[in-house]
Amino acid sequence: MILYMLPLAIGPWQIALIVVIVLLLFGGKKIPELMRGLGSGIKEFKDASKEEDDNIEKKE
């Protein structure tokens, strides 16, 4: 494996540590609200990119 890619390898212990830190920072009640916001942002991005693709296809 290439040495500069080793820090990108995330194992189960690193994921567990990240989850614990997120729980400590935001609390259990705030996380679903954050995930909803993230999901709606991703949905809006996909819709906008699809709309842009449709506009490009119509011009051709």
Characterize the main sheet.
none
Low-pLDDT ranges: none
Number of strands: 0
Count of distinct structural domains: 1
Pattern of helices and strands: HH
Q: Compute the average pLDDT.
A: 81
Cα radius of gyration in angstroms: 19 Å
Structural class: mainly alpha
Indicate the percent of residues in helices: over 70%
Alpha-carbon distance between the two ends: 44 Å
Q: Can you offer a commentary on this structure?
A:
Keywords: Cell membrane, Membrane, Protein transport, Translocation, Transmembrane, Transmembrane helix, Transport. Forms a complex with TatC. The model has no long low-confidence stretch (mean pLDDT 81). The protein is mainly α and 60 residues long. Helices cover 75% and strands 0% of the residues. The protein is built from 2 helices and no strands. It has one domain. It is elongated and about 50 Å long.
